[in-house]
Design a protein that fits this description.
Length: about 150
């Protein structure tokens, strides 16, 4: 059985997509796009050198463009203060009193939690916003007054 060049390109593209699904590496999709360009070049009857150049230019160019796009984005905050990872970040708690070491105990989500002041200045009782979670301890800052 003789496989055409375009079939080989499509098989390579499919293998790269499958590998991306298994690993989550988005760059593999860019390379699969390049293989698709090679397949289209084969369908157009272009030579093997032109197919490889088309695949390399589109796959490499798409990979480079994605890398540059990702490099320009700000880095994600650490997991302990990232709202996408920890849904408690940004929620409000009421702190009735602070200990001398900047810690307190508060009621939050039906349980008693340890709280630590994570802001400049002296802690004062009142409404605070959770800015991070460190283990089972909430890190809070004063809530902004509207």
């Amino acid at each position: 059985m003789d496989l055409s060049a375009s079939t080989l390109w499509w098989l390579a593209a499919g293998a790269l997509v499958a590998a991306e699904l298994a690993t989550g590496t988005f760059y593999l999709l860019m390379l699969a796009l390049g293989c698709s360009a090679g397949a289209v070049a084969a369908h157009l009857g272009l030579g093997s050198t032109t197919q490889i150049v088309a695949a390399a230019l589109l796959g490499g160019g798409a990979t480079l463009a994605w890398h540059l796009k990702r490099a320009r984005q700000p880095p994600a905050p650490p997991a302990e203060s990232n709202r996408d990872v920890n849904l408690d970040v940004g929620e409000t708690v009421h702190v009735p009193a602070w200990a001398a070491d900047g810690s307190a105990r508060v009621q939050y989500r039906g349980a008693t939690w340890s709280v630590r002041f994570a802001h400049a200045g002296a802690p004062a009782p009142g409404e605070h916003v959770i800015v991070a979670m460190h283990g089972s301890e909430l890190r809070v800052a004063p809530a902004k007054k509207h």
